[in-house]
Amino acid sequence: MKQIVVGLVVLLLMQVAKGTAAESFAVDVEAQSITIALTQEPPNLNSLRTTDLVSFFVLGHVNEGLVRYDRRGRLVPGVAESWDISPNSMTFTIRADARWNDGSPVLAEDFVFGWQRMNDPSVAAPYASIMYPILNAEKVQKGELPVKALGVRAEGNQLIVDLQTPCGYCLAVMAHVAFFPIKQSFYEAQADKYGAEPEHLLYNGPFVLSNWTHGSRLSMKKNPSYWQRDDIHLNEINVGYITADNRTRLNLFRDEQIAVARLGAETVKDAAQSGLRLRTFVSGGMAYLGFNHRPGRLTAKVQARQAIASTFDSEEFVNKIIAIPGYRSTQTFFPSWIQGVDGKFVDEYPISKQPVSNAKARKLLASVDAGSASLTLLTTTSPTGTKIAEYLQGVLKSELGLDVKVDQQTFKQYLSRRDTGDFDMVVSSWYPDFDDIVTYADLLASYNGNNGGRYKNDQYDAVLKTLQSSLDRGDRMNAAAELQSIIMADVPLIPMAETGSAYLQHAQLKGVVRRVLGADPDYTYARVVEAKTKPKPESKPKPKPKS
Fold first, then answer.
1. Based on C-alpha coordinates, what's the Rg of the chain?
2. Which pLDDT score, from 0 to 100, does residue 168 have?
3. How far is Cα 52 from Cα 345, in angstroms, rounded to an integer?
4. Per the omega criterion (within 30 degrees of 0), is the bond before 545 cis?
5. Residues contacting 446, CB < 8 A, separation 6+
6. Are residues 232 and 298 in the same domain?
7. What pLDDT score was predicted for residue 518?
8. Do 120 and 92 fall within a single domain?
9. Domain of 93, in residue numbers
10. Are 304 and 364 spatial neighbours (Cβ–Cβ below 8 Å)?
11. Could you tell me the pTM of the whole model?
12. Complete DSSP assignment for 173-185
């Protein structure tokens, strides 16, 4: 019955694609427009509150910070046309032709206001701690100093940022959504509606959000006010479908309704067998199993976490459960692409996971009176989420005798429950915000708003400060290695895999940038080209009839 129901849903979606949404073809050369699908609804387009990749994807196309990433993933000027950086401060010169879509100039004051709101403790912005390198940011967020004491000010067309400590990665972090500007008068006029609808957001990026039917579709159109508008080829990016179903997205791609289709394990094989060109991409994220460290939870006890970790096999998880090209097994929370001192961090600071016997793992549980404990595993409502949940449920039952209740939620509700701690274990992932190992390490800082499990380790916080503030590469990587050891011993989370992506892309769509950092995929530099036509075979003269 389940397969029949799924089939009917797919059929209905395809009928909609061909009927009421007949204008939503994959690519249009003349209009320079494309239609794509998202796996989830963007939960939040308020840059002060956003934490998820779907919202980052949209915001990365419609807004811009001081710097941005180019086609090759390099940091290049954005709203700032130039900058000067010293150990104690950063000075950015704001370009004169940067405009909001209402025609008003983007000012240094817009960054000052946006950053002050990000640090205001009354806002409780999840990404507030990313601003800790700025002078007084930590004290402002803790309510020990007023917001005006934050080390950022506007002087004419220059934004001056005073630093709390030297910061070797602070230019890279400026591309993050948390550092985007916000126009004060517009923000205050929207009140609680800011970012909730297209008309409640102001845009200074390559595109503007032109419409948004929640749960169904949204469109982004080229921004005529953007300072680099002549380099933008696409006139419209139409998100015609929002569906987590991998089969539906594959069928939409086959039916020429979407230009890019992200694949799951069950559709990778079908796509390959159909002769479609399969593309893969190592996306730089870390999939992990998070624990709730709040008092009263079994998972707050290190022995329970160590026992659970002993049952997890990353190789099996990647090859048999995920089974998507691009995923890699791991033993560490720091991915293989991250740089160390002279080479890759994982090569310079290798670890070896010592096996724990089943008997020892059960003794660990017995030592904390686990008894007949039942744990709640939080995950998203998706085919992949279901596979992971069933796998973990089976392993923990067979290896440790633990009963696991699976709590599958829509993406928005999942985020809410994760943030409020309504779980024992949570299937999650973390993607880099900037090009430095700090972007992974500080997730487990006790003060980080994205630390949903509320892990707190004073030694971890102290070592992290060295990683954040030192300018010596060797000292920094030694600190990262110490953090890696703490994670291995204390098990605040279980690294499951380095994430990857398998996808299909329309042959006429060119210039799409896939990258570890920034909005991904990035359609800023994309364009639609004419379809290639196969040359007609030359006509051969007919042989003369024999006499």
1. 25
2. 81
3. 26
4. no
5. 454, 455, 456, 457, 458, 460, 461
6. no
7. 86
8. yes
9. 67-188
10. yes
11. 0.81
12. HTTSGGG----HH
